[in-house]
Amino acid sequence: MERTKLASFSKILIVAVIIAGVYFLLNQLRNTEAEEKINLTTIGKTKDGYKDVINVGVITWGGYVGGQYFNEGFKANTKSRFYKDYGFKVNFEVIDDFDASRDAFKNGSIDLMWATIDAFPTEVEGLEQFEPQVIFQADWSRGGDAIVVARGINKVSDLRGKKIAVAPMTPSHSFLIWLLEANEMSTNDVDIVEVPSAIDAAEAFKSGIVQGAVVWSPDDDDCVSKVTGSRVLESTKNATHIIADVFVSKKEFVETHKEQLRNLYEGWMIGASELNNSESNKRKAAKILAEGLSQPEDFCLDAINNVRLATHGDNKDFFGLNPSYNGVTGEDLYNKMKEKYDRLGYNTGRAKSWRLLSTKDLVSKTSLTGINHDSEIKKQFSLGD
Fold first, then answer.
1. Segment 145-172, tens digit of pLDDT
2. Closest Cα to residue 136, out of 115, 153, 161?
3. Is the model's pLDDT at 94 over the cut of 90?
4. What is the CATH number of domain 145-235?
5. Given phi > 0 = left and psi -120 to 50 = alpha, else beta, which region is 152?
6. Which residues pair with 90 in a beta bridge?
7. Cβ atoms of 101 and 95 closer than 8 Å
8. The CATH fold of domain 53-136+249-373
9. Which residues have a Cβ under 8 Å from the Cβ of 121 and sit 6 or more positions away?
10. How far is 270 from 85, CA to CA, in rounded Å?
11. What three-state secondary structure class fits 44?
């Protein structure tokens, strides 16, 4: 009898413990959900109209890795330092097709879109109703853009009359213009084959349709390995201040989310500074790129090493906020390429001024100190005539 009572009591005790455990777990889940809700409402939505998620349009390129690394991935997530430190999430959308990326910007699918200042003058008129604003620089191409050529083409003058695949009015086009003009030639001296993107240019080269192509690295290595006798003729390792990647947002979005965008910029710059000064961090970032871009890790590490990730100091130089800087600014590059594209018949002469297309506020109101945030110390590249 006593044994039966003890057995019954034990069963009741076990049931009670299970019920208490379930209650505890449910309570913990409720607390976690409540904390996340508090984070989003008190840190996110109530501060100057923050969005829960900022959507950023990018391409298969290593120069945006500062933000993707700081975000701990491409997709919006709670492990992101943007979320932990600033209370909002960031989502990176990979849109390699140029026109599709612009459509996504226009229809509001993305809040920020990639652009390069060299080619931006060709876009201004088509984006006019959205009042685009350049808000910060992500990188300088340093080998990320290259021209690959077939056997027998050993110097730029050998390109005369050859078919060259290039995506028109893009960084690839700007690089080709620079390369030809630096050798006293023009695009009229070559047979341009227009393609949608640098990725398509690489495919056209590998298929033998063209004798030259302006491609993104590391597609240049892939082209050389697959086309016998081919080589890289030139890259932005030498044209160091021609291709400047930036991010653009609509003026209305900038004005209504200025503090949130400043936080985005600050976190991005912290990420860039950590990558510029650590090989182990670069390797971690390469893993993030490999997953987000569906590319091999080695490919992604090469992509990171073929850019100069812009720091806060670089951005101060780029936006003309450093009186002692005498190198190429965003305004210099924009005005020079605006003139070059206009001479080629792209009617960019009427494009709005740099002052109306850019804002210095994110950079000027951010304070990041220390050597890791300083600007690059290097001989500056001249844009030429």
1. 999 999 999 999 999 999 999 999 999 9
2. 115
3. yes
4. 3.40.190.10
5. left
6. 54
7. yes
8. D-Maltodextrin-Binding Protein; domain 2 (3.40.190)
9. 334, 337, 338, 341, 342, 346, 348, 351
10. 12
11. helix
Please give the DSSP secondary-structure letter assigned to residue 380. Answer: P
Same CATH fold assignment for domains 53-136+249-373 and 145-235: yes
The residue assigned the tokens 């508090």 is 38
The residues near 25 (Cβ < 8 Å, ≥ 6 apart) are: none
The DSSP result for 173-235, as a single string, is: HHHHHHHHHHTT--GGGSEEEE-SSHHHHHHHHHTTS-SEEEEETTHHHHHHHHSTT-EEEEE
Domain ranges (residues) in the chain: 1-36, 53-136+249-373, 145-235
* Interval 129-133 mean pLDDT: 97
Residues in the chain: 385
Structure tokens at 163: 């078919």
Which residues are CB-contacts of 117 (< 8 A; sequence separation ≥ 6)? 134, 244, 246, 330, 333, 334, 337
pTM of the model: 0.83
* The pLDDT of residue 358 is above 60: yes
Higher pLDDT, 329 or 25: 329
Cβ-Cβ contacts under 8 Å for 334 (sequence gap 6 or more): 117, 120, 121, 354, 357
Residues forming beta bridges with residue 134, ordered by sequence position: 248, 358
Average pLDDT value for the chain: 89
What b/e readout covers 210-224, taking b as 16+ CB neighbours within 10 angstroms? bbbbbbbbbbbebbb
* In the predicted structure, residue 198 carries a pLDDT above the cut 80: yes
